[in-house]
Write a structure and sequence with these properties.
- By secondary structure, the chain is mainly alpha-helical.
- It has one domain (25-97).
- Helix content is 69%, strand content 0%.
- The chain is built from two helices and no strands.
- It has helices at residues 25-53, 59-97.
- Helix 1 (25-53) packs antiparallel against helix 2 (59-97).
- 12% of the residues are buried.
Length: 98
């Protein structure tokens, strides 16, 4: 029975994460929260605009004002959120190259 020297254990190779265009979880949560907050604010603004201009039974116009205001502002915030997340991804890519 021969005793062979055991080699010195090598450090494991570094784990390389696959390339992904997916932004970090915190950034996605912040983007979603800003879209929801923008939609709520737009709905309130749409309601207030119709409420100020309408007298009498205005339930349907107020609902339409809420719907249009919320939809438009949420869509606008969605565009801004996508642009910010793309810029964040490009900025991170440039930092990784350096």
């Amino acid at each position: 029975m021969s005793s062979l020297p055991t080699p010195f254990p090598h450090d494991p190779p570094p784990i390389e994460r696959p390339l992904s265009a997916l932004p970090p979880r915190g950034a996605r949560i912040a983007a979603f929260s800003s879209i929801v907050g923008g939609g709520l604010a737009g709905g309130l603004i749409g309601f207030a605009l119709v409420d100020l201009q309408c007298s009498g039974a205005c339930d349907a116009p107020k609902g339409i004002g809420v719907l249009i205001g919320a939809t438009l502002t949420a869509a606008g915030m969605g565009v801004v959120a996508v642009l910010v997340l793309r810029a964040l991804g490009e900025w991170k890519e440039l930092q990784d190259k350096q």
